[in-house]
Amino acid sequence: MAEGGSNSAAEPLGMRAVIIGATGAIGQCLLGELLSSKNISKVVSLGRRNATVLAEYSVDQKAEEESGRLEQHVIDFEKLSTETVGEHFKDKDVLFCTLGTTRRAAGSAAAFKHVDFDYVVNCAKVAKEADVPQVSLVTSQGASTSSFFLYLKTKGEVENALKDMQFPHTSIFRPGFLDRGSKQRFVEKMAKLVMTSIPVATVAKALVIDAENYVRSKKSGDSQNTPSSVTYENAEILALLSTN
Question: Which residues form the NAD(P)-binding domain (predicted)?
Fold first, then answer.
C-alpha cells in the first residue's frame, strides 16, 4: 500500500497525533497511514485494548513501539478526565477520533449513545484542555440532529458538540457506506450494490492528508486566527486525495 500523507520532498512536519478508536475498521487503517507518513513523529493510541497495525502497511510495529514513536495505552473511558489521560494529549497537533459502535453491538440505544457521543465528547474535552489545535472526527453520510434514525441523529449531535468547543480547526469526515474489503459482511456486500461506498483505507488516507495540510498551513502562516471547520463528504474525501 502506498505511503500515507504528502509525498512532497519538503522537510517532515514532525506532527504528534493522538488516535481514539484504532482497533476499528477505519482506525486500523489510520494507524497504518500515520506510521507510514514521514510527517508523523509520534502516535499515541488510546483505547479499550491495544491495536495491531495491518500487514499491508509494511510497518514494523514492534520497532515503532520500541523506538517510542508509537505508544499504546489501555484506558477506561468511564473514568476519562484530564487527570487520568491528560498527559497523553500534551503537546500534540491533532486528535483523530474514529471511535464508534452500533446499537446492536452496544446492546441498547442508551449504551450506543454513551459510546458514540459521551466517549467522543469527553475525549475532545481533554484534548481541548490540553490545547490540541485540531480535532478530526469520523461520523457518517447523512449525519444530522434532525434525523429520525438514532445512529445518524447521534452522529449529528456529536458533530455539533465538537464544533461548539471551538478548536482552532475541526475536520469532520462523513463517509458513505464503508467498504471493508475482505472483512465485508454478506449484508454489506449486498448493500454495496445499491449504495455509494468508499474504502476504509481511502478515508484513513484522507484523514492524514487533511491534518498534514492544516499543520502545513499553520507553519506557512496561512491558517485563520478564528476557529474554523470543514466537512468532507465522499466526493470531497476523494478530491482531497487527488490533490495530494
Answer: 21-208
